TrEMBL record:
Matches recorded under InterPro entries: ClpP/crotonase-like_dom_sf (IPR029045), Enoyl-CoA_hydra/iso (IPR001753)
Name of this chain's protein: Delta(3)-Delta(2)-enoyl-CoA isomerase
Enzyme class: isomerase
Pfam annotation, one family: ECH_1
Keywords: Fatty acid metabolism, Lipid metabolism
EC number: 5.3.3.8
Organism (species): Corchorus capsularis
Reaction(s) the record says it catalyses: a (3E)-enoyl-CoA = a 4-saturated (2E)-enoyl-CoA; a (3Z)-enoyl-CoA = a 4-saturated (2E)-enoyl-CoA
A single GO BP: fatty acid beta-oxidation
Single GO MF descriptor: delta(3)-delta(2)-enoyl-CoA isomerase activity
Lineage of the species this protein comes from: Eukaryota, Viridiplantae, Streptophyta, Embryophyta, Tracheophyta
Homology family: Belongs to the enoyl-CoA hydratase/isomerase family.
Length: 240
């Protein structure tokens, strides 16, 4: 499923799953969410989180095999609704986490996997093997809200939103960097993970107040947070 390791103030979340595709179903999503809540409970000023995976896929999207295994149209609908609800809870947790977050994308991040990646503050990506791809248009599906709000919030320009959602562009590292989606690109899997950890450690050294960090993040994405039902807390007085 996933594992959480703590090195000093750095939390390392590692995705694990069948066939190394890390397809998102309630079991994996709840496992990730529990790990993030553990990191939140153990956080302190200076904490940061890096999410990593191994193999061809960072996450190959929603686990449609699990959805179809329900055996009926209504059962499949119920399973998809359950998985989307779990993904929503995961995004809420990431957006509320009191620390900087970095996704180390060494493989394909597809559809719901792309949404999971975008829920981090920073994306570090492999130049050739990393791919960001919103497959819904090619599958004849409309991305549900609030995921449309997530992409509007995180993909700055209208042309980038168009290319991701309407064109179904498969974005590699250098393209992602040019489009402003990705923070940096690197050659190999190990280089991506090392760069992500350096970035997270550098951010952690600022020793920001976690509560202030989380509330400021919420303020950046008011439409998204409103749609997800994430409440902002009262103004925090500065230290004097």
């Amino acid at each position: 499923m996933c594992s959480l390791e703590k090195r000093g103030n750095l939390f390392i979340l590692t995705l694990k799953g069948y066939n190394m595709e890390h397809r998102l179903n309630p079991t994996l999503l709840n496992s990730i969410n529990s790990a993030l809540l553990q990191a939140k409970a153990e956080s302190c000023p200076g904490s940061a989180l890096v999410t990593i995976s191994h193999g061809k896929f960072f996450s190959n999207g929603m686990d449609l095999d699990w959805v179809k295994a329900a055996g009926s149209t209504q059962g499949a609908h119920d399973r998809l609704f359950e998985a989307l609800h779990c993904l929503k809870q995961l995004v809420i947790t990431l957006l509320s986490l009191p620390m900087p977050t970095v996704a180390a994308v060494t493989g394909h991040a597809v559809a719901a996997g792309f949404a999971f990646v975008l829920s981090h503050d920073y994306i570090v990506m492999r130049r050739d093997k990393g791919v960001l791809y919103m497959s819904e248009m090619d599958m004849g599906l409309k991305a549900p809200e609030p995921w449309m709000a997530l992409f509007r919030a995180k993909l700055g320009s209208g042309s980038t939103q168009r290319d991701v959602l309407l064109r179904g562009m498969k974005i590699k590292g250098d393209q992602g960097l040019k489009m402003g989606i990705v923070e940096s690109v690197h050659e190999g899997e190990e280089e991506v993970r090392d760069a992500a950890m350096r970035l997270a450690q550098g951010l952690g050294k600022r020793k920001w107040d976690g509560k202030v960090y989380a509330e400021t993040r919420k303020g950046l994405y008011p439409e998204l947070c409103g749609m997800l039902g994430i409440a902002s807390e009262a103004a925090i007085l500065p230290k004097l």
